[in-house]
Amino acid sequence: MQPIIPPFPVARLRRTRATPALRALVQENHLSVKDLIWPIFVTDVPGADVEVASMPGVTRYTVEGAVRAAEMAAGLGIPAVCLFPYTDPAGRTEDCAEAWSPDNIANRAIRAIKAAVPEIAVMTDIALDPYNANGHDGLVVNGEIVNDETVECLVRMGLAQAEAGADILGPSDMMDGRIAALRDVLETNGHKNVTIMSYSAKYASTLYGPFRDAVGASGKLVGDKKTYQMDPANADEALRLVARDLSEGADMVMVKPGMLYLDVCRQVKDTFGVPTYAYQVSGEYAMLAGAMNNGWIKREETILESLLCFRRAGCDGVLTYFAPEAARLIHAGA
Ligand code: PBG
Q1: What is the ipTM of this complex?
Q2: 137 pocket-lining for ligand 1 (C-beta < 6 Å)
Q3: Number of the ligand 1 atom closest to the C-alpha atom of 282
Q4: What pLDDT score was predicted for residue 265?
Q5: Does 161 map to a domain?
């Protein structure tokens, strides 16, 4: 569609920018509190429920703290929280068995939040890294991240999360075949309405660094994640991954990181027209927070502009560590 622009001065494109009222009328995209998913870190490691050094303003919570955080988020109208466990690095094993324990920290937090704040959707992370001795998302056998054996672990992990009451499972592991396997185990165990938001296009990005501090995986990772996460140079491959995950039973798909991959968000939305989300990841948060805290960029405007871009790129929502602050700004009419 080519816009028809008559010659100047018939067309003066500044007319519709002249007043706040006119600008409001022609505003194309809107950010709503309903678009926000808030990632939170939970831990039962004594003394670990403190601010994450590389994510100023982001705190790890105890289970009780996470319940209060979820209550606060629900009060602000945020529809979902997404839980990430910080486990004791000393207790991580090669077989990752804690990942599917019904009483691991993530599953206890799911149950506590669903009991206290049933109206908020609880999303989970499915990947072995918080429970793995070597920091990888999959099982490592003879130095190789093995796919099919990992999928068996992920299925157990996802089922335990569903049984704890999770509303949205978020497989972030990038193994092949995991969505079909998860969907199958959910159907055969009576969890017909548990949704899957697949981390379909997850890039091997440097921007996950602060997150790995937050979950205690920094320094633990042996090698890199390039044999399973995507090459930042690729976009066609993202469309193949999304198509594959949809065909296997994903209800929603995600692009991650966010701000550096807005072109991929737009292509996914235009190609498939399915619920599409982006993750504004820890490194994006850290870059913005660092500049804001130094007074180099304005806090409130930057938070909102950095989230509105996802709506413009076609996303239905965004996972962001700024969620509560953004919600307050939206409610205040900023
Ligand atoms: C775990 C996982 C990661 C993130 C979400 N789930 C880290 C990784 O893949 O290394 C990153 C989130 C962020 O950086 O905010 N597989």
Answers
A1: 0.98
A2: yes
A3: 15
A4: 99
A5: yes
Say what the pLDDT of residue 3 is.
Answer: 83
Q: Are 217 and 130 in contact (CB under 8 A)?
A: yes
Structure token pair of residue 140: 């490592």
pLDDT of residue 2: 82
| Token pair in block for residue 74 | 């629900």
Does the Cβ of 211 fall within 6 Å of ligand 1?
yes
- Total number of domains constituting the chain: 1
Question: Is the whole model's pTM more than 0.90, yes or no?
Answer: yes
The torsion angles phi and psi of 281, rounded to 5 degrees, stand at -80, 180
Report the distance separating Cα 153 and Cα 160, nearest Å.
Answer: 11
Domain containing 146 — which CATH number? 3.20.20.70
Domain range spanning residue 133? 31-331
The type of residue at 246 is: L
Range of weakest confidence among 77-91, 165-179, 216-230, 257-271: 216-230
Do the domain assignments include residue 5? no
Residue 152 contacts residue 109 (beta carbons within 8 Å): no
Q: Tell me, rounded to whole angstroms, the distance of Cα 232 from its chain centroid.
A: 18
Is residue 1 in some structural domain? no
- The whole-number pLDDT of residue 26 equals 98
Q: Are 264 and 313 in contact (CB under 8 A)?
A: no
Choosing from 208, 227, 287, 306 the residue with most ligand 1 atoms within 8 A of its CB, the one to mutate for a pocket test is 208
Using DSSP's 3-state secondary structure scheme, residue 51 falls into: strand
